[in-house]
User: Which sequence fits this backbone?
């Protein structure tokens, strides 16, 4: 994923500016400047890890003398009680960076963990469907959150409005119908850019097929309608993507319809943080 190191650097600086401000007055008041310490970062529940490099950068930005030693890897499952990393060096820096490092690590690991749960449900039906994220991300954290999705076994949809054409319901309304929207999209599309169009009804699916869309997003369709739409698209050799209302209870049924992709906004907008803590040991 391009530019992710620059994003990490920027977001870490922003997060520390927000949290530390003019200085950690509690730690400065209580902890001597020369005091050293060692701390363990540990998983308090089982999940998939993501964000170690971000946590490392937090401590490096706080104090370059802090040593961050990873004991696990992003993308791997960690059991409850697993030591994720050991942090050692100036005690003030460890305490000052603790919350920001954990915020990133817990949030990104939560996304990776939820993505992996969806993948596990999908695997039960031995489906080849690919799980995608969406643009429903926290402002500023998109690249990091999409990285976490990949660590959990998912794949990335478009990164933003600039890298793929996706014609949605409001575009269709303003264009005067799905046919006009697709025609305008094709007329303005750069060479090599594929056209994906949202369809809510079988009539819209048929029209998108007729106009040779490259992929059709089947939005909020029930299972019966999804099967019908997928059958039509497969006959026309057009890729399909199911979206809307996808959860852990219904993803297997959606996968069984034969769709090529399932996009899930919940991966990024509703993932609970993975419980991870930092404790001083010396």
Assistant:
């Amino acid at each position: 994923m391009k530019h992710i190191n620059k994003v990490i650097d920027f977001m870490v600086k922003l997060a520390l500016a927000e949290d530390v401000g003019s200085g950690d007055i509690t730690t400065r008041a209580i902890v001597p400047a020369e005091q050293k310490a060692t701390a363990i970062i540990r998983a308090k529940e089982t999940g998939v890890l993501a964000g170690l490099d971000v946590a490392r950068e937090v401590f490096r930005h706080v104090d370059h003398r802090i040593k961050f030693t990873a004991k696990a890897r992003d993308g791997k499952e960690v059991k409850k009680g697993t030591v994720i990393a050991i942090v050692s060096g100036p005690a003030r820096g460890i305490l000052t960076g603790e919350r920001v490092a954990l915020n990133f690590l817990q949030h990104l690991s939560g996304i990776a963990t939820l993505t992996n749960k969806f993948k596990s449900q999908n695997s039960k039906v031995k489906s080849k469907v690919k799980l995608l994220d969406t643009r429903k991300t926290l402002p500023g954290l998109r690249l990091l959150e999409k990285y976490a999705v990949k660590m959990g076994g998912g794949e990335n949809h478009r990164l933003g409005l600039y890298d793929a054409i996706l014609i949605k319901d409001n575009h269709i309304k303003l264009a005067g119908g799905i046919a006009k929207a697709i025609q305008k999209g094709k007329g303005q599309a750069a060479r090599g850019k594929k056209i994906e169009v949202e369809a809510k009804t079988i009539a819209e699916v048929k029209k998108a097929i007729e106009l040779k869309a490259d992929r059709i997003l089947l939005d909020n369709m029930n299972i019966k309608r999804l099967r019908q739409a997928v059958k039509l698209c497969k006959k026309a050799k057009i890729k399909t993507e199911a979206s809307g209302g996808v959860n852990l209870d219904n993803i297997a049924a959606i996968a069984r319809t034969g769709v090529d992709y399932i996009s899930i906004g919940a991966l990024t907008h509703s993932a609970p943080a993975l419980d991870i803590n930092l404790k001083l040991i010396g």
